[in-house]
Amino acid sequence: MTTDSTDTRAQRRKSPKKPENALVSADRAGAGLDRGFAGLAKAAGIFILIILAFVAIFLSWNSVGALYQEEEGLIIGRFLSYAWPFALGTVVVAILALIMGAPIAIAVALYISHYAPPKASKTIGYIIDLLAAIPSVVYGAWGMFVLAPAMVPLYHWLSQWLYTWPEENLGWGIPFFAGSPGLGQNIFTASVVLAVMILPIISSVCREIFIQTPKLHEEAALALGATRWEMIKMAVFPFARPGIISGVMLGLGRALGETMAVVMVVSGLGFQLSIISPGNSTIPREIALNFGETGHGTERWHQLVALGLVLFVITLAVNMVARWIVSRHKEFSGAN
Amino acid sequence: MSETETRENSSQTPTPASVAGPAGPSGQQDPSELIRPRSLTGNVLPKWFLPATAAVGVVVGFVISYLIGGQSVNYALWFVLAAIIYVLLSYLVTRQQLNKRKATDGLWRNLVYVAFVIALIPLISVIWSVVVDGFQGITHSSFWTQDMSQNAARTREQAIHEGEAPMGGGVLHAIIGSLLITLTATIISVPIGLLTSIYLVEYSRGGPLSRGITFFVDVMTGIPSIVAGLFGVAAMQTILVMGNQLGLWSYTAGNYSMGITAAIALCVLMIPVVVRTTEEMLRVVPNELREASYALGVRKWRTVLKVVIPTAISGIAAGVTLAIARVIGETAPILLTAGTLTRVNWDMFAGSMMSLPVYIYQTFRYPFGGPGELAYLSEQRAWGAALVLIMIVMTLNLIARIIANVFAPKKTGR
């Protein structure tokens, strides 16, 4: 072997033109191509940064028109009074969806990783993953035609017992449940649809991390006489906490930015306190419904772009917080 | 503690072998108790306990919901009551008969089971309504071969409704539009994404640029799809205005509604997915392969192209397929950028373009022939389109999984 390779090297030194290796022989251009390819790869990476910078610059640049007009000067107040109901609606819908969706998603992940029969759990997990891929417009159609009518009796009940009855007997009803539900096309139905949509996402992230819990930790807990729930509480959850948080934050980000489900489910526009009667809106819904019909460069157009910027900043903040929590917990989790 | 009792008892009781021996079982104790001492079996409830509790919950829940609902049963209420009664009853009985720890364990197990059932109900309902309603839509031959240009007028829908004309109108234009837009987005995104991940894995040595790229790719994953749509519009308007000023064409900024604009918007959503998945795949390529290649005197770029990428190609293909599956269902960005259309448009650079998700939204929201008695025709087509879209997405996911499993490189001997 050794002699062989020294022979080859000697040969090559003698007659560099003579090819011995197919890979080497085609490589005439040598260092230039090497540098070129490295440059190309680097350029692609920089291009991505440019795209993102472009998104940010474009959004901020075109938002200026919503805050400042040459004839009128600063009009921040007008924009804020226009934007706050949408921002509030977005946050409320996303948080309602999270309250309903996250506990169930974590329980489903726990079911798949620790409760389901081992043979079935892989299939169930795969089916849940597939459900995460269903397009949002399909969930929107389902919410519009199936869920909204089915929710109407619940809304009547809520309105009766949380608003009408206390108002008549105590003089004050909870304003969130005032009004008539109509066809059930309100932001509460929208947040139920969003909860269903984010459930597979949160659940698959949590399941991944639950499965990775060190077997030794689990077995140690069981060997000390812990019941299954105590084992989960003592071994699985501490290990999985950063994963659970990042999964929930991922779901929150998705719920904040979700457009079509809200557009299709909610009807009505004006802001109101009630979450069970038609009305209210979210930022993505406002943009999707109006952007096509608004002339380029008008104040309204600038306002819509500025709304997009607000949404971008909110989702960015959520993602950053998630990352920060995960990195902070990693140091203390005692895993590895 | 029950554990210590168990241990003492089992050390005192005879072994199964001596029980089965010629002497026969001693008359004092039940033989089954010798084989499995009571201390081991006594601390559990009988097997029929949980099914019986569930049955009680279902029956009592039915009765209560029957009484509340005034002789008509609300299924949701029935389910909720049954679940509450089952969970509470089993907890209380276990706590009374056994101990608090076992009861808590059982409580959480039951809650997890109930949560799983609750999660399944809407998900099954979604699939069920799409498949049942959509199946009617896709069985008409016109569904696959026609666009909607004939059906825009109310008279045509009226004629179909009254049986004077055959069922017409389909999603051909939407399928063509979806495929064109997604294909263009893929052609733009995959080289950029792949080259970026090659840079991250092969060339960067953890410098500030690579850390920045990784960070901002993460940020990009979180961009809401509607913001990507806004960006697509803005980018195209800028390009159009610039080209106009340079005298390249005479589009105005208002003519942005094109297939290519949608493709640009989708790229923003697709590139981060491609980078993340391919980066992961390139990282699992064993370093020995690269070193072997360098040892043979092969240059780095050829090593990457001929050794690293072929090794990881199955993972890369699976990742790209998943990225396609993600963007093909996006509605909002395409609605903003490519608009809507009722006929086939093959030209990515001129005029609006219909796509499947936008078709579903548009047809549900604004039925052809107006809302009212003619709306069911449009809804039938829209459910059909939803079924087609779901089938495309599911098939892409399955293909990705198959590629990843079947064509995966054989593991090294270690």
Question: Could you characterize what this model shows?
Answer:
The complex is a heterodimer of chains A (336) and B (414). With 336 residues, chain A is mainly α. Chain A has a single domain, classed as MetI-like fold, CATH 1.10.3720. In chain A, strands 1-2 form a two-stranded antiparallel ribbon. In chain A, β1 and β2 form a beta hairpin. In chain A, α4 packs parallel to α12 and α9 runs antiparallel to α12. By secondary structure, chain B is mainly α. Chain B folds into three domains: 43 residues, no CATH class; 93 residues, no CATH class; 235 residues, MetI-like (MetI-like fold, Orthogonal Bundle), CATH 1.10.3720. In chain B, 72% of the residues lie in helices and 0% in strands. Chain B contains 18 helices and no strands. The longest helix of chain B has 39 residues. Chain B is flat, with a radius of gyration of 32 Å. Chain B starts with a helix and ends in an 8-residue tail after the last helix. Chains A and B meet through α3, α4, α5, α6 and α7 of A and α7, α10, α11, α12 and α13 of B.
- Indicate the radius of gyration of chain B in whole angstroms: 32 Å
Helix content of chain B: over 70%
Compute the number of structural domains of chain A: 1
Helix/strand-derived category of chain A reads mainly alpha
Q: Which chains have the largest interface?
A: A-B, 93 and 101 residues
Oligomer: heterodimer
**Helicity range of chain A:** over 70%
Q: According to CATH, what is the topology of chain A?
A: MetI-like fold
Q: Short summary of the structure?
A:
The complex is a heterodimer of chains A (336) and B (414). By secondary structure, chain A is an all-alpha fold.
Topology summary:
The complex is a heterodimer of chains A (336) and B (414).
Chain A: H1 2-14, H2 22-25, H3 31-67, E1 68-69, E2 73-74, H4 76-115, H5 118-132, H6 136-170, H7 187-211, H8 215-223, H9 228-257, H10 260-265, H11 283-290, H12 299-332
Antiparallel strand pairs in A: 1-2
Chain B: H1 2-12, H2 16-20, H3 31-35, H4 38-41, H5 49-68, H6 75-97, H7 100-138, H8 141-145, H9 154-161, H10 172-203, H11 208-221, H12 225-246, H13 259-283, H14 287-295, H15 300-328, H16 332-337, H17 356-365, H18 375-406
Helix pairs in contact in B: 5-6, 6-7, 7-18, 10-13, 10-15, 10-17, 11-13, 12-13, 13-15, 14-15, 15-18, 17-18
Domain ABC transmembrane type-1 (chain B): 175-400
Family (chain B): Belongs to the binding-protein-dependent transport system permease family. CysTW subfamily.
GO molecular function (chain B): phosphate transmembrane transporter activity
